Amino acid sequence: MGPLTGEDGIVRCPWAGGPGVMRDYHDTEWGNRVHGESAYLERLTLEAFQSGLSWSTILNKRPAFREVFHDFDAEAIAAFGPDDVERLMAEPRIVRNRMKIEAAVTNARATVALREDGGLEDFVLSFAPERSPEEPATQSAESVALSKGLKKRGFAFVGPTTMYALMEAIGVFDPHLVGCFRRGTR
């Protein structure tokens, strides 16, 4: 499916059709480059939590995720223990999935360890494709390689489809469809 024209006359990627949180995310954030360890860890964590759920669910819960995960400060999350996991399992404002919460802690620890080799941002960007895709996809050779690379570094819940979504979200390449008003604006 190609881009669609909204009731406001603007052509967008089809998932950003009507007014609301998804359109706002599409128009102002999705596909824009982010910088810094906490920005990368936040997006990686939220993409993992989104797995099997709608992205609008995650966007609506993002303020609570930021609060309970200390604005995605890797060292703070890396220090979480079993009591913190139980506290988060009882937190109704976030997605309460033990495997995903434990993966967030594991990934924070792996992020801290990755600092010795340039850090999470540089590592993810090293897998950037040479050009942006023109057609929608759910994974790529680069997302498969990123997934394998992160797993070797101790990360969890970083499958190729989740890593493709991460690469789209943080502007590793331009994810907007040809014809979308955002295409080429990153």
Automatic annotation (TrEMBL):
Gene3D superfamilies: Hypothetical protein, domain 2 (1.10.340.30)
A Pfam family the protein falls into: Adenine_glyco
Protein name per its UniProtKB record: DNA-3-methyladenine glycosylase I
Organism name: Nocardioides caricicola
